[in-house]
Design goal:
By secondary structure, the chain is mainly alpha-helical. It is 56% helix and 0% strand.
Length: 124
């Protein structure tokens, strides 16, 4: 609804009818979410601007919540729960660019292919 309000193609009354709510409820919603609607309006070309998950802080908060749930589980010491928490910690480190690069070393050496039993001069 925030994105539709930000686009401005439909009036609040039209949106209220579309979603089956009163115009007053739509106006209250627009007032409550004014800052979010303005953020979306400022970046309308970004189709993901209205999704909570595109913000790093929101993703980190979700990871934190999941980690706390996994830590508080009655069987938190079970290897699957430990593995789950480890994966969350890895994802957070990756999100914050705190993992070392995994650049391999490339060694370029000349390679010569030899085909035995074929006279290359006869193929010309």
């Amino acid at each position: 609804m925030c994105r539709l309000l930000a686009e401005g193609d439909l009036t609040k009354a039209q949106l209220a009818r579309r979603f089956g709510i009163s115009r007053t409820a739509m106006t209250r919603f627009a007032r409550r979410h004014k800052a979010r609607i303005e953020e979306i309006r400022a970046d309308l070309d970004d189709e993901f601007a209205d999704l909570w998950i595109v913000r790093k802080a929101n993703r980190l908060a979700a990871y934190e919540s999941d980690f706390e749930l996994a830590s508080g589980h009655p069987n938190a010491s079970h290897h699957e729960w430990v593995k789950s928490r480890t994966q969350i910690l890895h994802a957070v480190a990756q999100e914050l660019c705190q993992l070392p690069g995994r650049n391999g070393i490339s060694v370029v050496m000349p390679v010569a292919h030899v085909i035995e039993g074929i006279d290359l001069d006869q193929l010309k």
